[in-house]
Amino acid sequence: MYCEVNGEKTFYSNGNGTIKAGQPAVVFLHGAGMDHSVWVMPARYFARRGYNVYALDFPGHGRSSGKPCQTIAAMADWLAQALTVLAVEHTAIAGHSMGSLVAINFAARYGDTVRSLALLGTSLPMAVSEPLLNAARDNHHDAIDMTNTWSHSSFGLMGGNKNPGNVMTMCGQRLLEMAPQDVLFTDLNACNEFTDGAEQATQIAAQTLVIVGDQDKMTAPVRALDVAAAIANSRVLRLNPCGHSMLSEQPNAVLDGLATIV
Fold first, then answer.
1. What CATH code is carried by the domain that includes residue 11?
2. Are 254 and 42 in contact (CB under 8 A)?
3. Helix, strand or coil for residue 149?
4. Is the pLDDT at 198 greater than 60, yes or no?
């Protein structure tokens, strides 16, 4: 489905559900270089259980037009504008990787809007290695290879997906390859430069679930635990074996966790 945010065409998936007044809302935020499709399974699950689902494509990602936001704060402001357009006043928010940073920033600054949070593959700070950032700046395919490979655990790299018809590494590879030039770099750079998140996390009042992949090479589990410790009303779900691409490596465990918080 489409709406218009700041004069730009913005796409969101409703999980093949129906948006109805009075239903609880849940918003899904994707990671760097990705789009709404990483949330297909959770979006459909909650849509079929009476939720208004909004799996958004950030500007310049997926089916949304416009230029990518340059900072995490700009993405959070954009999200606030999108929710106003969609008439969403109170919602659960689930964010993966970059999306988790946007969720943290948004919850700290627009707290009255947030019912609950789920932070997947999160870290504060979320530093990006120099080789990856440089390759992304040059739009070199090595950036896609590094991001995709490092996002999977050894289990994930073997391809043992529990969902028939899906190959974990190839799904991530194709999504990153479909992103326009400079999008991956812009996203990774925004993550790398988001340095005040730890302080913002302490300002979050909403109940929060932090989902941690024990073999996460992109966002170290110890950093995710630090995020949980900074948020007063939080708890942790640890997945093993699981890397950063937990939505494909452990989709059912992730969904079980989301069902307890959304």
1. 3.40.50.1820
2. yes
3. helix
4. yes
Total length of the chain: 262
pTM comes to 0.96
CB 109 within 8 A of CB 76: yes
Report which DSSP code applies to 92.
Answer: E
Neighbours of 74 (CB within 10 A): 15
Tokens for 172, please give them.
């991530």
Q: What residue numbers bound the domain in which 109 lies?
A: 2-259
Cα gap 233→102, rounded to integer Å: 18
Q: ∠ at Cα 54 (133, 59), nearest 5°? A: 40
Count of domains for the chain: 1
- What tens digit of pLDDT does each residue of 114-169 get? 999 999 999 999 999 999 999 999 999 999 999 999 999 877 665 555 555 555 67
- Gap between the Cα atoms of 168 and 152, Å rounded: 8
